[in-house]
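Narrative summary of target 7.
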Amino acid sequence: MIKNFKQILIICGAIILLGTAFFLFKNYNPEQVGFYPQCPSKYVTGYDCPGCGSQRAIHSLLNGDFIKAYNYNPLLFLLLPFGILVGVFEWIPSLRDHSFRRWINNKYLVLSVFALVVAFTIVRNF
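Modeled conformation, tokenized:
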């Protein structure tokens, strides 16, 4: 019983957290309000990290401006679907033995995504 109650609390908390994030990103532009966190990498080094522009891109995506979102952070359009797929296959127990999960978790694919992130970071800063 306690395990089920904990799962219910975790699911409810996740729904509340995602709903709040959706509401904030949809209604408040990160360029115009000051309560969104700043990038620590950009603050310390002055260089853009791979995620820089993601908050503005998510705001633009939720408001239907896909071109503007792409211009803020093009890598987000690749990593967001990839991250969602990985999450779905990790969090749903019945999908953990699926052959597609083994393909997504292939070390060469993971290393390729990592190399892409590093290359994107270098190219965007120079």
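The chain has one domain: 2-125.
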